[in-house]
Write a structure and sequence with these properties.
The protein has eleven helices and five strands; from the N terminus they run H-H-H-E-H-E-H-H-H-E-H-E-H-H-E-H. The chain is α/β, with parallel strands linked by helices and about 260 residues long. It has a five-stranded parallel β-sheet with strand order 2-3-1-4-5, sandwiched between helices. Helix 5 packs across helix 7, helix 6 crosses helix 7 and helix 9 crosses helix 10.
Length: about 260
């Protein structure tokens, strides 16, 4: 039996080698991103991740530490996604736009694909108020809700590498736009009134759409808000007839409009 110190020295040697190989792997991740950017190959490739996971399961099969090995590689994959996210996104991504454009759905997939954190400003407001948005509007009025919204967006300034899904009216206040621009790329998601209606017709949690769930009223509301949306946006992505994966790909590959945002 070896003495304890010699075993520990071998463990330390293993750790050094693991660190070297992990650095090598992360460098490869950055090279892949550079290649994809240069050649126009899609950045987000969930099928490749599935193939990689399948190959790892095959390699680990039968190993006495199979479960532990797979858990380690799961963590390595998550960290590789974070390296990828840092190469693609500087700061946060703030998703803005009218109700029903798909902010929550896009937020969820971006979080999954890039291992970023995610928050929904409306959810934070509901948690802080202890009541639904409808109830906030009914009991305290829209101005109170907007004040809470402004405070929440200000508080989110401490976030980093986070996807922030903002409420539909968040950018109507210029101060909110300035708050977001300090730490985020502001991405405006758009859709036609017909698409919006198809997505929100069965949802009763949107007080601004009470009695207005029709194409004409939705179009009128969108027209009023459009100047504020356009003025705030660093990137504009239309979501009509696109998969959520296509939308996310556009978000992370579209250049920021000249002269817009802190990263312009």
């Amino acid at each position: 039996m070896r003495d304890l110190e010699s075993i520990r020295r071998e463990v330390a040697e293993c750790d050094q080698e693991i660190l070297r190989q992990l650095e090598r792997r992360m460098n490869c991740v950055n090279e892949i991103i550079d290649y994809k950017k240069a050649t126009g190959v899609p950045i987000l490739q969930p099928n490749q991740e599935k193939r990689q996971q399948k190959a790892l399961r095959a390699l680990a099969a039968g190993n006495q530490y199979e479960d532990e090995m797979l858990n380690i590689f799961e963590s390595i994959t998550e960290m590789s996604k974070k390296v990828q996210a840092k190469a693609l996104v500087h700061g946060n991504i703030a998703l803005v736009g009218f109700m029903g454009v798909g902010k929550s759905t896009v937020c969820t997939l971006l979080k999954q694909m890039l291992a970023m954190d995610s928050v929904e400003s409306d959810e934070i407001i509901v948690q802080r108020a202890g009541m639904s948005i409808n109830d906030i509007f009914d009991h305290y009025g829209e101005a109170h809700f907007r004040d809470m919204e402004s405070q929440v967006l200000k508080d989110l300034g401490v976030c980093h590498q986070t996807v922030i899904s903002c409420g539909g009216g968040a950018v109507l206040r210029p101060q909110n736009v300035e708050t977001l621009r300090q730490h985020s790329r502001i991405v405006l998601l758009t859709a036609s009134p017909e698409t919006i209606l198809s997505r929100v017709k069965d949802n009763d949690d949107r007080p601004k759409l009470r009695g207005k769930k029709n194409v004409r009223d939705i179009a009128a509301m969108m027209a009023v808000r459009e100047p504020a949306y356009m003025a705030a946006a660093d990137v504009i992505v239309n979501t009509d007839n696109k998969s959520v994966l296509q939308i996310c790909e556009e978000i992370i590959t579209r250049p920021i409009a000249f002269g817009k945002g802190q990263n312009a």
